[in-house]
Design brief:
2 domains, mainly alpha, elongated, Multidrug-efflux Transporter Regulator, Chain: A, Domain 2, 148 residues, two-stranded antiparallel sheet, 2 strands
């Protein structure tokens, strides 16, 4: 490997947004690498291909994909077109998970807004609005409990 295409772990960390311990862990579990080492210092030297793999892993991690699915994704990526259907299915499973997380967050956001409306009604001394807000809040709390 030439020096011009070698990146230190610090450079890869800055570029990818993954911490150095995460990069070491990803090498340890076989998601990336093995990473070449500088002959004199023994420090990791990432090549262009390693950097590309780390960028993919960074994106997958950002969407909450776990190690096993990352491993499957990378293996399918290396195999190519014959695994396109499996890649699609893997990604769509994560789409469903993220959509469920978004729905849960929207429900939590609604709870916060309704709680603020309740306190706003109390602040204004509007008993009718307070009662309506309290009823809506109870319904939202039941939906939140169902998420657990």
């Amino acid at each position: 490997m030439t020096v011009s295409t070698a990146y230190t772990i610090q450079e890869v960390s800055r570029h990818s947004g993954l911490s150095e311990p995460t990069l070491r862990y990803y090498e340890e579990v076989g998601l990336v690498g093995p990473i070449d080492r500088d002959e004199r210092s023994g420090h990791r030297r990432y090549g262009e291909g390693d950097l590309e793999t780390v960028e993919v892993l960074s994106c997958l991690r950002a969407v909450g994909m776990g190690i096993d699915d990352m491993r499957t994704y990378l293996a399918n990526r290396r195999i190519g077109r014959s695994r396109a259907g499996e890649q699609r299915d893997l990604l769509l499973r994560h789409v469903e998970r993220v959509e469920a997380e978004i729905a849960a967050q929207r429900l939590r956001l609604g709870y916060l807004r309704q709680k603020a409306e309740l306190w706003d009604a109390r602040d204004r001394g509007d008993a009718v609005a307070e009662e309506v807000a309290a009823e809506r809040l109870v319904a939202t709390m039941k939906r939140l409990e169902a998420l657990r």
